[in-house]
Amino acid sequence: MAELDPVIHAQARLKIMSTLAALDTDGSIAFPRLQEVLSMTAGNLSTHLRKLEDADYVEQQKAFSGRTPVTYVSATRAGRRAFEDYLEQLRDLLGGTP
Amino acid sequence: MAELDPVIHAQARLKIMSTLAALDTDGSIAFPRLQEVLSMTAGNLSTHLRKLEDADYVEQQKAFSGRTPVTYVSATRAGRRAFEDYLEQLRDLLGGTP
Questions:
Q1: Helices B31-38 & B11-21, crossing angle to 10 degrees?
Q2: I want to staple B57 with a disulfide (CB 3.0 to 4.6 A). Which of A21, A25, A81, B52 is the partner?
Q3: Which residues on chain A are in Cβ contact (under 8 Å) with B4?
Q4: DSSP A2
């Protein structure tokens, strides 16, 4: 039976990857906006993003909006591929399901 | 954003529920057979089944095959409903996904 990537399967990270994968390729989302979409605290979101970064699935880039630093988050190419593999394995796993 | 039932979302329990939900209503599966289908150790399977029993999602019944006691495992009605809800919330969560 399929083994689901535990880096992606954890509920918070599944939501993050699902949101990032829905962006255009090369698309990114500002950290505060992502926080709002997912209703997560900054600390919780940061923790999960770090885990996804460690797996090379997401990237964070700092930019300036006027004088304010803003962090933009995006899925890497490896992250998108891992997420697609995850979805396929999930479909396999749920295959017998009505 | 949808919250996934953590009792079901854990990978091992997702596999168990998916397997049990694929049985006929009123269908059950022998513990050793379930263990084989899922490639899980008896201890690991027992632990997860206990958690699912505590949530009233599965039922275990002892029967005899000749003199050998066999445990049969099935999803309860509440378990099937919870699993369907889980799948719907998962679809919601993955909704933005290509």
A1: 120
A2: B52
A3: 11, 14
A4: P
A58 interface with B at CB cutoff 8 Å: no
Instruction: Specify the DSSP class assigned to residue B44.
Output: H
**For the segment B39-68, what is each residue's pLDDT rounded down to a tens digit?**
999 999 999 999 999 999 999 999 988 899
One-letter amino acid at A4 equals: L
* A22 with B98: Cβ contact below 8 A: yes
- Nearest residue, CB atoms, B9 vs list A3, A11, A22: A11
- Does the pTM surpass 0.95? The reply is no
The answer to whether the CB of A8 falls within 8 A of the CB of A88 is no
Nearest to B22 among A1, A19, A97 (CB): A97
Banded model confidence at residue A96, pLDDT cuts 50, 70, 90: low
Q: Which residues of B touch A19 (CB under 8 A)?
A: 96
* Residue A4 with chain B: CB contacts under 8 Å: 11, 14
**CB atoms near residue A2 (< 10 Å):** 16
For residue A33, what pLDDT band results from cuts at 50, 70 and 90? very high
Within 8 A of B87 by CB-CB distance, chain A residues are: 94, 97
CA distance B85 to A55: 31
